[in-house]
Amino acid sequence: MKNRFGVLWAITLLITLLFSEAASARKLKVYSLPKAIVPGQLGIIVFENPDPIHSVTRASCTADRLIGWVKSDIPILRIEQNGKQVWTSLGSYQTAGDSCIATFMAPAIFTTGRATLYIVNGSDPSIPYYFTIAAKPTAALTGVEGGIIKPLANFRVIGDGFVPEGSVNEKKARAELEQNIGLSHLSPAEQWTAVNHRIMKDWDKLPTGNFLYLEQGGKSWRSFVESCGLSTAGEASATSGTAAGMTLEFSAPPDIQPGPITLTLGIRMNGAEVFKTAPITATVAK
């Protein structure tokens, strides 16, 4: 009798868990996709929030290809084209009310033409959504978060069409500089110049990356990415959720002067700079 009750209890628990998972893993609606991105480029996707009760924010400079379906605490993507199927994680991810905003990477193995995307919540895929794999990359800067840049301070640019960041060991570079020139004994301005010059040697060897060009009064600087993320345009609604854009964080040069400064982003893919954005103007604070 005890064994019978034990079996019945186990079956009841299993059924409850299955129904709970089915209830929570529903098909999600996609509200926005990029019009066109090239293989290996990041795009923004806006979709229905599977869990509006809990807020989630994650920042990533890339998105990982998966070997297949995997269990995940946030949705994953299945992207198809011409009989090829690629599973991928989302990169930066942010809940915003009824919506979620995230970045994803167009599969590097895809070719020019239409691709089909499914957002998979648990094990439940959405209906198919479509976007275009383009032949040539495009990107844009739309502004500076807060509109102000200060010398030696970190700031974030907002835009679209960025690419995944390669990895440079900044800790190792600083250790080398400490041993060779006594980095910690230099002024903050001298430290910025030394670290920037050292890291750029490695950054130029990366196959992909985003590089910021700053120009002011005939002088120019180039800065490497410190971190990546998303900037949202307020609370996104379930039907009109939009992202202000992807973000890249940089450290400002020490010798920029109060007044306007011009910013341009260079996009590097396959070991070469393939695109530069139209310049935007920001303000250096006093």
Question: Can you put this structure into words, describing what you see?
Answer:
- The chain is an alpha+beta fold.
- It is built from three helices and 22 strands.
- It folds into two domains: 25-133, Immunoglobulin-like, CATH 2.60.40; 140-284, Immunoglobulins (Immunoglobulin-like, Sandwich).
- Mean pLDDT is 87; it is low at 7-23 and 234-243.
- The strands form four sheets. Strands 2, 5, 6, 7, 10, 11 and 12 form a seven-stranded mixed beta sheet that branches.
- It is elongated and about 55 Å long.
Largest sheet: 7 strands, mixed
How many domains? 2
Overall strand count: 22
Q: Which segments are poorly predicted (pLDDT under 50) over 5 or more consecutive residues? A: 7-23, 234-243
Write out the CATH superfamily name of the largest domain: Immunoglobulins
Distance from N terminus to C terminus (CA atoms, Å) equals 82 Å
CATH architecture of the largest domain: Sandwich
* Average pLDDT score: 87
CA-based gyration radius: 23 Å
Q: How would you spell out the order of helices and strands?
A: HEEEEEEEEEEEEEEEHHEEEEEEE
Secondary-structure-based class equals alpha+beta
> Portion of residues in helices?
10-25%
CATH hierarchy, class of the largest domain: Mainly Beta
Number of helices, counting only DSSP H or I runs of 4 residues or more: 3
CATH topology name of the largest domain: Immunoglobulin-like
Strand content: 35-45%
Described by the principal axes of the CA atoms, the overall outline is elongated
